[in-house]
Amino acid sequence: MTSALEVPLDPKVLEGLPQPPTITLQSPKDYIFDPRENIVIHCEAKGKPHPSFSWTRNGTHFDVEKDSKVLMKPGSGTLVIDISGEKAEAYEGTYQCTAHNEHGTAVANSIVIRQSRSPLWSKERNEAIVVQMGVSLVLQCRPPAGLPPPVIFWMDNSELPLDKRVSQALNGDLYFSNVLPEDSRPDYICYARFPHTQTIQQKQPISVTVLDSKSGQSMIFQDLNCIWLNHMVLRGEILELECIAEGLPTPEISWQKDGGELPGSRTSFQNFQKTLKISDVNEADAGDYRCAATNKLGTAHHVIKVTVKGIQFNLLIFLFHSNDDPGRKVDGDTVILSNVQSGSSAVYQCNASNEFGYLLANAFVNVLGELNLICFVATVNKIELEILDIQASLYYFLILTHCLHLPEPTRILKQPEYKVVQRGMSAEFECKVKHDPSLIPTMTWLKDNGELPDDERYNDLETQRLIHFNTSVQGTYTCIMNTTLDQDSASAMLTVVEKPDPPTDLELTDQTERSVQLTWIPGDEHNSPTEKFLIQYEDLLHQPGVWINLTEVDGTGTTAQLNLSPYVYYSFRVLAKNRVGFSEPSLPSSQYRTNPAAPDENPSDVQGVGIEPGNLVISWTPLTGFQANGPSLQYKVQWRQKDSDEDWIERTVANVSQIVVSGTPTYVPYEIKVQALNDYGYGPEPGAVIGYSGEDLPSSAPDNVQIMVHNSTLAEVHWEPVALPSVRGKLQGYKTEVETEQQEQVLTFSGNRSEGRLPGLEPYSLYNLSIRVLNNKGEGPPSPSKRFETPEGVPGPPAFLNVINPGLDSLTLEWGPPMKNNGRLAGYILKYQPVNNTNELGPVKVKNFLANETTFTLDNLNSSMLYRFTLNAKTIKGSGPTITEESFTAMDTTVPSRQVDIATQGWFIGLMCAIALLILVLLIVCFIKRNKGGKYPVKEKEDAHQDPEIQPMKEDDGTFGEYSDTEDHKPLKGSRTPSNGTVRRDESDDSLVDYGEGGDGQFNEDGSFIGQYSGKKEKDTHEGNESSEAPSPVNAMNSFV
Asked: Which of 73, 127, 194, 806 has its CA 20 to 30 A from that of 854?
């Protein structure tokens, strides 16, 4: 067993220690900046002495002083980049800060600087969507990729409410589990808000029409294009899984983890249980997550496999910020220091990286002196004493090691676990063992209590602690760990599973025109129960060689009643499925033919849409040969204008899926029916669907356009809607075009409206406005242009505020006019006030300037004082936002902070001089008294004895023979220990005890001498008496320092 004693650190000693730089503040690794604001890259560090700073950009040295737009804050490495009037892209790149002093170097993280971007939405044309009630619907957003990504939300006239039925996915798409008539809207709009630039862009409106239907719909699972089949997340990040289902009634969503439980304290559900969120992910969270969607008609499942990867760094780079040292060696992830000397102090930096990122770690090794440690090594039979000379001390940690070796029992810490694997795959049994390191272990594996066969199927790894089976063999496996003293063992069973054998002996019974019964005998399950049977058929008449799934039967069944269709030549086969997979298909059954009959159904998805003015295209989804029920399949197509007394017009066609009707009026509703027929009769009577003939462009423009200006950024427009016949199509809304000489804005108002609001206008601007009516074909002519003007507003902030030419009692300010005046600029308001050392603000002074003034010099200021300045512009509407800047009046760049250096104060210098004089007087007095009190001069002792450690000792009392003293072992009166706690010695390595009046050599109880330490060697040695009290590790360390 090993024990260690940690010596507490003396705070007074730590204050005087040199320190290498340490990074205390830095910007995030990914820095996205707003081009309207300055770039501020933080880099702060501490150290003794205070470090200096340098930067690299894109891997090369970045000379800050050569770029007038870049400022490094005094006493800091923080960069402030003024990008006003410059191309912000010029400052994009990878920046890295370095802080260094005479004791080492610290490197900050690499910071990638990128400009925020809000790209425009790509132009697209959205077709109107017409759906039946109860079906699912997905409205895609597809926003432009911004930096950072935009925030997505959907609106019509107001923000759309979300619930269990209507939800927004993580990618921004809008999902309807089932649609209802109230979902019909002409203007579903997806908005993208870009946070850095504070801009909002919108997608073109999407029109949705829901047709009423009485038919129900069973629940179907919607898997979001399988984007979550497999998902990888890094340890410590947030895991988000999404599951959206379609169905009627609206399904309920639930989550579970296969083979485990969800971590309760770190798990949350969002978006009405559709999003599973787990924070602070670790390796235990990996596995299969099952989403279940349930309504009264059934349940659907979806499994997402989650993999958790930790940042296990596979590359270690050690950087040494000092001269090369032959006693330094890198072994993998360890730095080994040998023969450490006082000049071996250095900063060691470890850069660990892999595909997911990197980490930096710094260590400062400060070698302070020499230290002798004694280690007792006790064995079972004898005790040995070893003297170890360790010449290093790392920040005052003193470790006293007492090594007592006793054999530890052999124990299996992790037993092999029961496993079920598929045939042909590998299996792993892990057997972790703890044993005494002095004993020689032997690992043995057994199978069914016998030795493993000596063949290549078995492979031992990690000194027989982990065993692989290249081809799995079922049985019981045992690991045995033997030593010369004891042993331990553990066992586990391996079960091999594989796909079931195919069913056999297929037989058809109870044969009728529309049904038949199929029976079979199941095959061997191979250690995995059969979950279900899949029955397939082949249509030898219409699709020979193609097997189609017909139905499924529970794994315990051996018979099925099959429903058949007319005019099909059937052949059946059966497949069995267990947890491994499907078996091979069974041999086909005997052939069974059904007789022809009239169609049982009509074509689906019947539509009537005009693609040009004056036509109507009727389309449908044709029946398959299997659905035809007989030969000579045809379609009878009928149409007539809605709400008219005209007879049905009909046309019979074959082998087509649409017809074109010409000569129709513009945008007129039609009733349409499509019926199937063959040589054996007609299908059921079809229901009529409504279609519309082709649209044309609107022929008229809105009249009586009126504009009401509410304020400098908002106006309201009113107009008289056009007559519906002049729309010549389905009315989609009205389009307003608002333009100035510099820009043009387009706003669309959906539906049949007569007014709308115009937000986001620029103050003090002249606008021209026109309105057009929209239908599915396009837009009509514009209304006469209407002109209006917005009133003045408050201006924006000044473009910049800089302090130039700072003097001892004056500062010169310069600023730029606002980027947006928003009116006639009336002037500027400047406020300034001093800031003391405790960040308290002094009285505020105010100055006003005219609009054409952009610079001013402030006089009669206090020297070495920090001042805070705030500036804003104003119009007749008021003052705009302020811009703030701080600056010192003094130009002394060596002052790293607002704190006053105490070492430069007069009273402190005087006090130090007085203390030094008093110490000098005391030393002189001690020297005089010491020369009078001893029996021999120091000079004689130095000449006679060059090394006190080799002097003979008297046999009777153990004292030094020539210099014994019968006086009490007491220190000299008036003697003082140096204030830093150290004792200095000359080149002869003499101890002060040898020159005292009978002072003992200080040994502790185990005989080790810890009271003698070397300091800086000098020609003239100042000495003092040792204390007579017993030594301790703390006192020894204080002396060492």
From this structure: 73
Nearest to 539 by CA among 575, 567, 504: 567
List Cα–Cα distances, 462 to 345, 430, 431, 432, 443, in angstroms.
39, 10, 10, 10, 11
The separation between CA 141 and the C-alpha centre of its own chain, rounded to angstroms, equals: 24
Q: How far apart are CA 715 and CA 758, in angstroms?
A: 5
Structural tokens at position 692? 């519309």
477-483: average pLDDT: 88
- Taking alpha carbons only, the member of 696, 699, 719 closest to residue 707 is 719
What would the DSSP string read from start to end of 535-550? EEEEETTTEEEEEEEE
pTM (predicted TM-score): 0.40
**pLDDT value at position 88?**
78
Q: What is the mean pLDDT of residues 840-861?
A: 91
Calpha distance 159→166 (Å, rounded)? 13
- Rounded (5°) CA angle 953-959-962: 75
Q: Which residues pair with 308 in a beta bridge?
A: 233
Please give the mean pLDDT across all residues of the chain. Answer: 78
Look up tokens 């979806």; give the residue.
Answer: 302
Look-up of token digits 């597809």: 142
Q: CA-CA distance, 243 to 1032, in Å (whole number)?
A: 68
* Residue 536, pLDDT score: 96
Per DSSP, the residues of 668-729 read: -EEEEEEEEEETTEE-PPPPPEEEE----------EEEEEEE-SSS-EEEEEEPPPHHHH-S
Strands 39-41 and 475-482: unpaired
Q: Which of 71, 80, 72, 70 is nearest to 98 (CA)?
A: 72
State CA 884 to chain mean position distance: 34
Query: Which pLDDT belongs to residue 455?
Result: 67
What 3-state DSSP class applies to 15?
helix
Rg, the chain, Cα only: 45
Rounded Cα distance, 43 and 350, in Å: 20
Give the mean pLDDT of 404-414.
74
If you search the block for the tokens 């450490």, which residue do you land on?
340
Residue 873, Cβ neighbours under 10 Å: how many? 29
Residues in CB range of 873: below 8 A, 6 or more apart? 795, 796, 797, 798, 817, 818, 821, 825, 827, 828, 879, 880
3-state secondary structure of 961: coil
Annotate 326-345 with b (16+ C-beta within 10 A) or e (fewer). Answer: eebeeeeeebebeebeeebb
Structure-token pair, residue 49: 């002495």
Q: Considering only residues 792 and 235, tell me which one the structure prediction assigns the higher pLDDT.
A: 792
827 pLDDT more than 60: yes
Give CA separation, 326 vs 329, 332, 338, 350, 367, in Å. Answer: 8, 17, 9, 19, 16
Peptide bond into 669 cis (omega under 30): no
Task: Give the distance from CA 402 to its chain's centroid.
Answer: 47
pLDDT beyond 60 at 314: no
Note the pLDDT tens digit of each residue in 70-116.
999 998 999 998 887 777 788 889 999 999 998 888 888 899 998 88
Whether the per-residue pLDDT at 300 is higher than 50: the answer is: yes
Could you write out the three-class secondary structure of 637-655?
A: EEEEECCCCCCCEEEEECC
Rounded to whole angstroms, how far apart are CA atoms 650 and 221?
40
- The string of DSSP letters for 234-271 reads ETTS-EEEE---B-SSPPEEEEEETTS---GGGEEEET
Could you give the maximum distance between any two Cα atoms of the chain, in Å?
146
Confidence of residue 183 (pLDDT cuts 50, 70, 90): confident
For residue 960, give the DSSP letter.
B
User: Minimal CA–CA distance to 210: which of 127, 128, 131, 135?
Assistant: 131
CA distance 724 to 775: 11
